[in-house]
Amino acid sequence: MFETESYVGSKEKNYPIVIKQLEALIEDETDTIANLSNASALLNQFLDKINWVGFYIWKEDELVLGPFQGLPACVRIKSGRGVCGTAFQDKETQVVPDVHAFPGHIACDAASQSEIVVPIFKDGEVYGVLDIDSPIKDRFDEVDKKYLEEFVRTLEKYI
After folding, report:
1. Closest listed residue to residue 116, CA positions, set 71, 86, 72
2. How far is CA 128 from the centre of its chain?
3. DSSP-based three-state secondary structure for 42
4. Which of 29, 30, 56, 86 could bridge 63 with an S-S bond, Cβ 3.0-4.6 Å?
5. Residue 120: which of 28, 32, 24, 12 has the closest Cα?
6. What would the pLDDT profile of 40-55 be if each residue is shown by its tens digit?
7. If we measure between CA atoms, which residue out of 129, 117, 103 comes closest to residue 50?
């Protein structure tokens, strides 16, 4: 598990290991749901101080809940709504230190205090998003952003 207090060095060492583990888990599997499921389980195992990690997939003009680890979640999110919808609409990662200060934040879990959402692309279009919530403020930083984007780029090869 990553230790947030001793962080930068160990986090930068551990993320590449997690990305290699992701590739080993999914490289021979063609089923997208299976790959997203293992990806969420892997992140849940290795990231500390998180309370939800999972995917939303663009279907029928909405982001629809996909594989995840955590408490029950919002099932459908419109483009531009909340952190996930904003990441989808803007096609860029959202790092939110305090979700309560984010305009239009959707409170699926009252315990969530900070969030990071990374868009997933397939064939040049936004396919969905990786969403990770934390029960502490300021949980995610530029190191998380860099490596979670790399994690998603690896995942994109198998969806």
Report:
1. 86
2. 10
3. helix
4. 56
5. 32
6. 999 999 999 999 999 9
7. 117
Cα–Cα distances (Å) from 33 to 6, 80, 135, 151, in that order, read 34, 24, 27, 16
9: buried, middle or exposed (CB in 10 Å: 19+, 13-18, 0-12)?
exposed
Query: How many angstroms separate the first and last alpha carbons of the chain?
Result: 26
How far is C-alpha 86 from the geometric centre of its chain's CA atoms? 14
Q: Domains in the chain, please, with CATH? A: 7-156 (3.30.450.40)
DSSP state of 135: S
pLDDT digits (tens, 9 = 90+) for 77-112: 999 999 999 999 999 999 999 999 998 777 777 789
| Torsion angle, alpha carbons of 128, 88, 92, 24, to 10 | -10
Pairing of strands 94-96, 114-122: antiparallel
Q: Is residue 9 pLDDT above 80, yes or no?
A: no
Contacts for 133 with CB less than 8 Å, ≥ 6 apart? 50, 51, 52, 53, 70, 99, 109, 112, 114, 115
- What percent of the chain is predicted at pLDDT more than 70? 94
Tokens encoding 79 = 């483009």
**In the predicted model, what is the mean pLDDT of the chain?**
92
